[in-house]
Protein: 1,2-phenylacetyl-CoA epoxidase subunit PaaA
Organism: Sphaerisporangium rhizosphaerae
Amino acid sequence: MADLQRHFDRTIEQDRRVEPRDWMPDGYRATMVRQIAQHAHSEIIGMQPEGEWITRAPTLRRKAILLAKVQDEAGHGLYLYSAAETLGADRSELTAMLIEGRQKYSSIFNYPTLGYADVGVIGWLVDGAAICNQVPLCRSSYGPYARAMIRICKEESFHQRQGYELLLTMMKGTPAQRDMVQDAVNRWWWPSLMMFGPPDDASPNTARSMAWKIKRHTNDELRQRFVDMTVPQAEVLGVTLPDPELRWNPERGHHDFGPVDWSELKRVISGDGPCNARRVAVRRSAHEDGAWVREAAVAHARKTARRTAPDAETTSADAGATVMDVGTTNADAGATSADAGTAAGAEARA
Ligand SMILES: [Fe+2]
Ligand SMILES: [Fe+2]
């Protein structure tokens, strides 16, 4: 046991990756499963706020971009659930924990999208904050997570750019369009800063995650990096970030910013945000509506297994289980579009 622990410690110390076959402390495994699962849930729930706008996109080009973006988020969720499975987690159990409210996802997705400018602001600020958080995770000590993050980050950078480009276009439009952008920035700015988690002095797990090199920077470091990166972009756009205390501090070489309302984060995390109940309800009904897809996929895998090699039945049934979750995600996107479709259809007919 001491040998195994020493080997693990050396792996971390020398900046090598911990792989699924390696021994790891129980605490490390549990922390990784929890972090990866919450990340996966965030990607899947994160499809909803923007997915609601797919059928109401103003042009075909915007619809194609938004569809691609929302599908990317489904893909991110699937890579991450797969990464969690390499640690021995069961994907259907993780889904159960999400829809029963036993496991969390990023609180940012509990805010509503009120207009199409929100799609741009989510791309710019929310995906922008996600990039700040996730780029260092490409060097996270757990191999499958770090490798999944490389591809995810490339796609996140497309998400950020499409959002910013949408906002640039709207800012060149009518005064009403510029007002929509400013209003969306006012609503999303502070929740975006909360995406980095509580301040360092109230984040007891940070030290351990840093020691294990799961995390490379503290919450406050990443939040500062995000603010410094975003301020010049806001100037180019011509929007005002809703913080009267925001200003460049030449001594620190960083922007100072006003206090974040941590009681709001606490409230939203504990279930009392504007959309918590709706997000989980949509996810639950998509899961229930997708049951027939999962059953059909498993039945098909069994049939194929019987035809090809009678001994291979168990393995193929497992493959079927992987297909079934893809089915769920598609059904999920379908449910979201269907909801938006009803509203948009009603508008079009009116
Ligand atoms: Fe994503
Ligand atoms: Fe994204």
Observations:
- Residues 313-349 form the longest helix (37 residues).
